Amino acid sequence: MFFIVQPDERPDGYVVVSETGPWARWLSRNVPLELDQEVRRRLISNLKHLIVGLELKTALIIPHRHRDAQDRPVLFESYYQNLILEFCVAAFSVLEGLGSGHWLRQTGQDGRNAPRINRNQWLPALSAVYDNNGEQGLHDTVERTLAVRDKLHQDRLGARENIDWHALSYDAAFVPASRAICTLLRTEADTVPETTNLRAETA
Fold this sequence. Notes:
Blueprint: E1 4-5, E2 14-15, H1 20-30, H2 37-65, H3 77-106, H4 119-130, H5 138-149, H6 170-185
Parallel strand pairs: 1-2
Helix pairs in contact: 1-2, 2-3, 3-4, 3-5, 3-6, 5-6
């Protein structure tokens, strides 16, 4: 079982290894300077909290998935799938936030007038910055992450082939979302906190 504690209280528990402060450095290099100062401040603040949440979810999802056959589960199965869904939703917000920021910069806007930025606008802008030659497969992993995120909507269940939980597996949902985040972290990699568990090898 994992406990979210300070290291001197429970050395074998999950220890918070990265807080929001260290992520501000990476974000300050990735959120365009051309944005309105207040818009930029809010975006950085929102994203650093989301990223720390991704670290916590990763710390629970990975050991549950990769435990030995004789080990006890880290999570109840329904918690595990819920955490994967929550990881995808938070990853979506990070991808959307950075993509929107870059779309604003690329179109000469600063965000003060709060334009509505659609997926077909921010996703190409995101790909242009973080995977302009397509080698990392960012566009595909983002699309797969968004498909999982859309499972939140329960208004057209009759159009689906199966229950949503079948789509919230480690391979189908967590891996693409994690890889999308890892692709972003390749840019300005020297400013990524050394202690983060959001690394390519975890996916």
